[in-house]
Automatic annotation (TrEMBL):
Protein name: Phosphotriesterase
Co-factor(s): a divalent metal cation
Cofactor remark from the record: Binds 2 divalent metal cations per subunit.
GO molecular function terms listed in the Swiss-Prot or TrEMBL record: hydrolase activity; zinc ion binding
Annotated residues for binding of Zn(2+) 1: H25, H27, K135, D254
Originating organism: Streptomyces kanamyceticus
Alphabetically ordered keywords of this record: Hydrolase, Metal-binding
Amino acid sequence: MSAPRTVRTVLGDIPPAELGTCDAHDHVFIRSPQLPGQELDSADAAARELAAFGAAGGQSVIQWTPYGMGRRAGRLPALARSTGIRIVAATGLHQAAHYTPELLDELRGEGLTDVFIRELTAGIGDSGVRAGLIKVAGGFHGLDAHARWTMRSAAEAHHATGAPITVHLELGTGALDVLDLLCGELDVPPERVVLGHLNRSPDLLIHHQAAQAGAYLAFDGPSRAHHATDWRMPDAVRALAEAGFGDRLLLGGDTTTAGARSVNGGPGMPHLLRGVRPRLELAVGQELVERILTVNPGRAFGVRWGVS
């Protein structure tokens, strides 16, 4: 008998069904030189934001913050306990622009695959928190040498652990290039890959091809109201659902700046359930949206750990 699938939260592994209503891509903590002065580094603000998400009906958050970007993994268990929100932490590496050259050289020397495997199996630093996914990133309409290095390391870590791989697509582009590399060249099963930010490039043909390949498609970041493509997201979801890919879809908020948090006057995590959900229900119906928020995340992030 094969081992059951579980989701690796910061408080331990749980059955996928226990995720409940899930924000499939967000950030409890994050910092980057690309976003100066907008760091998410306050534990108090994080607690209030998670509580607001819970008050809106949320039950779990998948944090995509990778290595070296202020994850504050040691803070996550206490936040999960105090707010009742299940949290999944990430290992992985973002685009090179988010790091110093010295840190990247250090990781090359240490071995990036080994870092990922250690954080998935032993824990992040001395926090005791094990990561539940590997987050990597592509470039704008292509994959540079850094992206290929991180994705190759992510694939190796996946094969060693079974962990899912989530991918930041720059402005929603490069999805097929990512799948060609991860699933074609590197033999990662497509159902273990989550493609993020597809709402930012509403190319319905690319969406269809990515879903047909077997990957999960995350429409994550609708809280950023300045994106002119936001209003097209329900149409993209409806087109995928009508093509039979409703089981491949995920939704997230991707709150990356302090100003975007609901506790600071922005839409924040609650917007996913208070704003996006009712709008999508008008487009594709309440039943499908419920499945996208509950069943699909459990399938995407539920893993038979140690089995690729």
